């Protein structure tokens, strides 16, 4: 706000010099009221003057400056627009657009003020102050690059060596901060990339290790299944052999028993025949006993 007051002061000085040439009545208002900061009375006198001189661009400019001191920013804007409409000089219109930008700045309409400053520069290529205000707006928006760009343009056009030196120091500090931030950002990005690469490599190793373990488990499982199948097959073959062996033994036993049964039947039949024959035969009792003994012996062998 102090900067804007200084800018308006410069604006008033220019008006005073101009009015001293063109208008004795406005000079009286300057000498009696404005010079002594009697803004309310100056406002009244300027309004009376403008009623009689409705196309006087300088009067509107002076009136706008007075309204600005009274913080009547909406009326400042109206007065400056009137001044612009009645101003014939392109360069002067550029100065008035600058003051109009300041009025919008005071109303916190930063976007509109930027448009007014741009119009001021378009009409007056030698005016420095709009570049300073544009830089200030960008500074407040934390757009430091654009701030520096406009303040450098201000320094190139301004003749205020003290302010220029101050701005150069500020710009140097900004540029140093920007460079430090750039270096820090590069380091941060490089570190993020390094960490990301380490994570990627670690993840690839983890996946490869999981695949290796899974493959080992698969092979081990295949071996286990194959071994189980082998053992089961061996058991099946052994069981089949055991069953076949048991069947063979049972069959041999059955055949042997069948043969023994047949022998017994044959022997019994033979004995029956002999007994029947002995009843008819008139052999001695001694022969009969010998045969009987032999028959008993054969029966015991069969059993």
Supply the key terms.
303 residues, mainly alpha, Serine Threonine Protein Phosphatase 5, Tetratricopeptide repeat, 11 helices
Question: Care to describe what's here?
Answer:
The chain is an all-alpha fold and 303 residues long. Among the domains are: 126 residues, Tetratricopeptide repeat domain (Serine Threonine Protein Phosphatase 5, Tetratricopeptide repeat, Alpha Horseshoe), CATH 1.25.40; 51 residues. It is built from 11 helices and no strands. α8 runs antiparallel to α9. The longest helix has 120 residues. The protein is rod-shaped.
Structural Rg: 64 Å
- CATH fold-level label of the domain at 2-127: Serine Threonine Protein Phosphatase 5, Tetratricopeptide repeat
Tell me the name of the CATH class of the domain at 2-127. Mainly Alpha
Helical residue percent band: over 70%
Question: Strand portion, in percent?
Answer: under 5%
**Structure class:** mainly alpha
Provide the CATH architecture of the domain at 2-127: Alpha Horseshoe
Number of strands: 0
Global morphology: rod-shaped
Please outline the major beta sheet.
none
| Regions with little confidence, pLDDT below 50 for 5+ residues | 16-23
Mean pLDDT across all amino acids: 88
Q: Helix count, per DSSP?
A: 11
- The rounded distance between the terminal residues' Cα atoms is 141 Å
Order of helices and strands: HHHHHHHHHHH
CATH-assigned homologous superfamily of the domain at 2-127 = Tetratricopeptide repeat domain
């Amino acid at each position: 706000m102090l900067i804007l007051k200084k800018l308006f002061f410069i604006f008033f000085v220019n008006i005073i010099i101009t009015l001293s040439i063109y208008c004795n009545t406005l000079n009286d208002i300057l000498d009696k009221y404005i010079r002594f900061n009697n803004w309310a009375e100056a406002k009244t006198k300027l309004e009376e003057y403008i009623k009689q001189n409705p196309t006087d661009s300088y009067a509107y400019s002076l009136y706008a400056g007075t309204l600005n001191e009274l913080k009547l920013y909406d009326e400042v804007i109206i007065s400056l627009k009137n001044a612009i409409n009645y101003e014939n000089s392109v360069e002067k219109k550029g100065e008035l657009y600058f003051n109009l930008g300041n009025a919008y700045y005071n109303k916190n309409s930063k976007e509109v003020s930027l448009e007014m400053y741009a119009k001021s520069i378009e009409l007056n290529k030698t005016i420095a102050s709009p570049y300073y205000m544009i830089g200030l707006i960008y500074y407040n928006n934390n757009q430091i690059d654009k701030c520096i760009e406009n303040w450098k343009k201000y320094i190139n056009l301004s003749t205020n060596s003290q302010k220029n030196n101050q701005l150069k120091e500020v710009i140097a500090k900004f540029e140093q901060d920007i460079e430090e931030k750039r270096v820090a950002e590069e380091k941060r990005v490089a570190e993020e990339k390094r960490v990301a690469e380490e994570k990627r490599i670690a993840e690839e190793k983890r996946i490869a290790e999981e695949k290796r373990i899974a493959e080992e488990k698969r092979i081990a499982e295949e071996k286990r299944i194959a071994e189980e199948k082998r053992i089961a097959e061996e058991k099946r073959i052994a069981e089949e052999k055991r069953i076949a062996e048991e069947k063979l033994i049972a069959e041999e036993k059955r055949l042997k028993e069948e043969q023994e049964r047949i022998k017994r039947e044959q022997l019994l039949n033979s004995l029956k025949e002999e007994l029947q024959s002995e009843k008819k035969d008139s052999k001695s009792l001694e022969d009969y006993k010998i045969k009987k003994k032999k028959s008993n012996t054969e029966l015991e062998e069969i059993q």
